[in-house]
Amino acid sequence: MSQEVTVYNPRKFERDRARVNNGFWPKIRRVARRIPFMGELLAAYYATLDPKTPLQVKAVLMGALAYFVLPVDVIPDFIAGFGFTDDAAVLYAAIRSVAGSIRDEHRQRAKQMLDKALAD
User: Fold this and answer.
1) Is 14 within 8 Å of 65 (Cβ atoms)?
2) What residues does each domain of the chain span?
3) Which burial class, exposed, middle or buried, applies to 65 when counting CB atoms under 10 A from its CB (0-12, 13-18, 19+)?
4) Is the alpha carbon torsion for 22, 100, 98, 94 positive or negative?
5) What are 36-73's pLDDT values in tens digits?
6) pTM, rounded to two decimals
7) Contact assessment for residue 117 and residue 32, using Cβ atoms and an 8 Å cutoff
8) N or C: which end of the chain has fewer CB within 10 A?
9) What DSSP string describes 4-73?
């Protein structure tokens, strides 16, 4: 007997998307200089915006991005040295599971945005 595993949950996806749409850029502006994985975070974000990215991949990445945006998580972000450890772990697992769908164009766009943001 085989069981089908469904990764995509439309209600959760829409809830995550709303959370990311409302909180992603404000949080990025607050913490950009303190996060060593910012390039991958932005690349994941841009992959979710790409119409060529499969919906299942978008769902995985959107869940990780929503976790990053959450104001309360396992390790509070304000704890120096450790605050983003859980965010990094969640993002790393999500990116690793869909790595083939985060393309060079997403990483290039992320690099351009990061260069611009850090120059300001």
Assistant:
1) no
2) 10-119
3) buried
4) negative
5) 888 999 999 999 999 999 999 999 999 999 988 886 65
6) 0.78
7) yes
8) N
9) PPP---HHHHHHHHHHHHHHHHHHHHHHGGG-TTHHHHHHHHHHHH-TTS-HHHHHHHHHHHHHHH-SS-
